[in-house]
TrEMBL record:
SUPFAM superfamilies: ATPase domain of HSP90 chaperone/DNA topoisomerase II/histidine kinase. Residues 210-274 form the Signal transduction histidine kinase subgroup 3 dimerisation and phosphoacceptor domain. Keywords: ATP-binding, Kinase, Membrane, Nucleotide-binding, Phosphoprotein, Transferase, Transmembrane, Transmembrane helix, Two-component regulatory system. It catalyses: ATP + protein L-histidine = ADP + protein N-phospho-L-histidine. The keyword Amino-acid biosynthesis does not apply. The chain crosses the membrane at residues 12-39, 51-70, 109-137, 157-177. Its EC number is 2.7.13.3. PANTHER family: NITRATE/NITRITE SENSOR PROTEIN NARX-RELATED (PTHR24421), NITRATE_NITRITE SENSOR PROTEIN NARQ (PTHR24421:SF10). The keyword ATP-binding applies. This is histidine kinase. It holds the Pfam family HisKA_3. GO terms for molecular function: kinase activity.
Length: 425
């Protein structure tokens, strides 16, 4: 429990005094106007006119509190000096009128109450000191104690009690006002429904970027490791019997690792800089440009791949939309990676463009089949899995397509359909 007038209460007191200082420009302006309206008098010489000037300054405070930058300034002060938990306060300038109105209410409350506490802090301590000192100051023993608006005929030995009471009252007022501001801060400076929605959208966008980069890492690195592992194992077995095969396998390993290092560096660069449009980022592989190399590396790992492509060789896929070409490449890559990892035998790959549900729409269909995986005791036990097929489904869903994977007759089949949104080949 926080002890009375502990560090937190003292900081809140300072926060209130800061509010009083911020009110001074408004107050000085309004007291001049009030003095002119009252007949050219000095409003500071009249208690009633001073109160009128104070009241007139608050609407000006409320108007300036509507500016968007008032909220982040107030939030920073509330977090640092009122010790309000940061997660209960909004970040950034107020954008909606509702948020501006709430920030304006806080700004007015802070400056208005802060001015009262500041005035009391300036006036009460000197008054209390005079009352407490009355019994020991000879010239004050027999005179009426008068300080500003306060006067008492009480005996000099009663005056110290009055002084102590004044100090206690000031302390209670300052502590109470500080608690009031700290309690209203989450209400007036907390996030609005629009702020929460914007924060949720930002988190969703960040999560989507992270998921995309995770898929890129999984597909690129997973395929490379599977291919290199099989190529190295095949080269080791044929080291003495077929040096030419070993040289081909080592060349494939070199090519695979070089490509993967480039892709890995690009993805890590995006994670580090957070800028998907970096000019030095390596371009993502596409079906048109990179399918041939992918098939060659897979075959070099010892897996037979029969490819049937409609409308023809890989070079004819240049007319595909760029995003469909990229996602299709990754889906094919994941399917081949699974075939390599499971050692399930020859792969039959078919890629074709077919008519979609509408006459103006086309779909890219990818079908990959291979024998079912060997029994668990005949292959290396996997410690992870499932992310690749889930990533394929996410890639297809981003384009409005679908992915199906599972047993199909006596074979395992991966089928993906990617809408081309009316694009023609």
């Amino acid at each position: 429990m926080n002890r009375p007038l502990g560090a937190r209460d003292r900081w809140r007191w300072v926060h209130l005094i800061l509010g009083g200082a911020l009110l001074m420009p408004y107050f000085l302006l309004t007291q001049v106007v009030v003095g002119v309206v009252a007949g050219g008098v000095n409003a500071l010489n009249s208690g009633s006119l001073t109160l009128v000037a104070y009241a007139a300054s608050l609407p000006l405070v409320a108007v300036t509190g509507m500016f968007g930058l008032v909220r982040p300034m107030s939030v920073t002060a509330a977090r640092a000096m009122c010790e309000v938990p940061g997660e209960r306060l909004a970040d950034g300038p107020a954008k909606s009128w509702a948020a501006r109105g709430r920030a304006s209410a806080w700004w007015t409350l802070h400056l208005g109450i802060g001015a009262l506490i500041s005035g009391m802090t300036l006036a009460v301590p000197p008054m209390a000191v005079m009352l407490i000192a009355a019994p020991v100051v000879g010239r004050m023993r027999d005179v009426q104690l008068t300080y500003g608006w306060f006067a008492t005929d009480a005996g000099p030995y009663i005056a110290p009690l009055v002084g102590i009471g004044l100090l206690a009252g000031l302390t209670l007022c300052a502590v109470g006002a500080g608690k009031l501001l700290a309690g209203t801060a989450p209400v007036l400076l907390g996030p609005t429904a629009a702020d929460r929605l914007a924060a949720a959208e930002e988190r969703a966008a960040d999560l989507a970027v992270r998921n995309r980069l995770a898929r890129e890492l999984h597909d690129a690195v997973g395929h490379a490791l599977s291919a290199v592992t099989l190529q190295a194992a095949a080269a080791r077995r044929m080291l003495e019997r077929d040096p030419a095969f070993v040289r081909e396998a080592l060349t494939a390993i070199e090519d695979t690792t070089r490509r993967t290092v480039g892709e890995l560096d690009a993805v890590l660069g995006l994670l580090r800089d957070g800028d998907p449009a970096r000019p030095d980022a390596a371009p993502a592989p596409t079906l048109a440009a990179d399918l041939g190399g992918l098939l060659a590396r897979t075959r070099a790992a010892g897996t037979t791949v029969t490819a049937h492509q409609d409308p023809g060789p890989a070079g004819d896929w240049d007319a595909l939309p760029a995003i469909a070409s990229r996602e299709a490449y990754r889906i094919v890559q994941e399917g081949l990676t699974n075939a390599l990892r499971h050692g399930a035998g020859p792969v039959d790959l078919r890629i074709r463009v077919q008519a979609g549900p509408g006459t103006a729409h086309r779909e890219l269909e990818i079908t990959m089949t291979n024998p079912p995986a060997a029994p668990a005791e005949d292959r290396e036990t996997r410690t992870t899995g499932g992310r690749g097929l889930r990533g394929c489904a996410e890639r297809a869903a981003l384009l409005g397509g679908s992915v199906e994977a599972g047993p199909h007759g006596d074979r395992w089949r991966l089928r993906a359909v990617l809408p081309l949104a009316g694009e023609d080949l």
